[in-house]
Design a protein that fits this description.
With about 300 residues, the chain is α+β, with helices and mostly antiparallel strands. The chain folds into 2 domains: about 5-80; about 85-290, no CATH class. The protein is built from 12 helices and 6 strands. The chain has helices spanning about 5-15, 20-35, 40-50, 55-80, 85-95, 105-120, 125-140, 160-165, 170-185, 235-245, 255-275, 280-290, and strands at about 145, 165-170, 190-195, 195-200, 220-225, 230. The strands form 2 sheets. It has a 4-stranded antiparallel beta sheet with strand order 3-4-5-6, with helices on both faces. Strands 1-2 form a two-stranded parallel ribbon. The chain is elongated, with a radius of gyration of 22 Å.
Length: about 300
């Protein structure tokens, strides 16, 4: 089918959105879904033009379902590929709400931050001094800050939005922080603490795939949500004790990429649930189920 014929067929489908026969509309829905993301601009344009509540409701459902199918397929492919690129998965999730997201814009902004940090670093700096320089550029120059006022907003979990607004939750802030840090060869990894996501600066020879006695491999921890404040193993123990958790190794060790994305999807499910957007919350839970169970180390 050539492009002109395809457009005519899509336009014909748009005129059938108000079909009263449910069985006929089901067939129309299947045909719409077959176009995937390419039909989204037509659905969104039709939603803007119509004043019919039934048509608007159907269009909203179709748009959400097609976005979910696209994200679900891409996330499943990421899992099959070994969950290697955390930034890639974070942007796949972001395309649920921002289907036209341009990854090159995100990568360019991260590269700009990286360059400005790199210009301030030198080989004689200790690990703590490196983080002090990093924090100055990240928080003072670029203005990143934890979003305490709207902590549970879904926008806090979408990396492209966090890069634009410069505010996010502990997880999104941590992902951006560690992505830039790792691109500068800083051994900074995510740590899945209960109720808070933090980062660990490890010894250079540390293998994040191993978790035996992590307290012997980690120099210090970083709270990306709180302007990169640094704390130690004893303070993590105190934090866990305050929450009523035992100090088991998994709370101190760097976690897997899939654990981080699971937490992101859980945050989004919770955020949409608080806004009574149950369909979107369900989508986030379904996406989370594509990933392996949480790391039980």
């Amino acid at each position: 089918m050539d492009a002109e014929m395809e457009i005519r067929e899509i336009q014909a489908l748009m005129r059938l959105i108000d079909e009263p026969d449910s069985s006929v509309f089901l067939e129309i829905t299947r045909k719409i879904h077959s176009y995937g993301n390419s039909i989204l601009p037509f659905l969104e344009g039709e939603w803007e033009r119509t004043a019919d509540p039934l048509v608007q409701s159907r269009l909203e459902k179709l748009i959400r379902q097609i976005r979910f199918e696209s994200v679900s397929g891409d996330l499943a492919e990421w899992v099959r590929g070994g969950c290697k690129n955390l930034l890639q998965a974070s942007l796949i999730v972001a395309r649920y709400h921002y289907p036209d997201l341009d990854e090159t814009d995100v990568e360019a902004e991260l590269a700009r931050i990286r360059k400005d940090v790199w210009l301030e670093l030198n080989e004689s700096l200790t690990a703590l001094e490196q983080i002090k320089v990093f924090n100055h550029v990240f928080y003072d120059v670029y203005g990143f800050a934890g979003n305490a006022r709207n902590y549970h907003s879904p926008s806090n979990s979408y990396l492209n939005q966090v890069l634009t607004s410069r505010t996010g939750n502990p997880l999104s802030m941590g992902i951006i922080y560690m992505t830039v840090a790792q691109s500068l060869d800083m051994p900074v990894f995510g740590v899945n603490l209960p109720e808070h996501f933090v980062l660990a600066y490890t010894h250079s020879e540390f293998d994040p795939g191993r978790s035996d006695k992590p307290e012997n491999k980690i120099l210090f921890y970083i709270n990306a949500f709180s302007r990169g404040s640094v704390f130690n193993h004893r303070e993590v123990v105190d934090f866990l004790k305050h929450l009523g958790y035992d100090a088991v190794p998994k709370f101190f060790a760097p976690c897997r990429n899939e654990d981080i994305i699971r937490r992101m999807l859980s945050n989004l499910a919770n955020a949409y649930g608080k806004e009574d957007e149950t369909d979107k919350a369900g989508d986030m839970e379904a996406l989370r189920d594509l990933l392996s169970p949480p790391d039980s180390r």
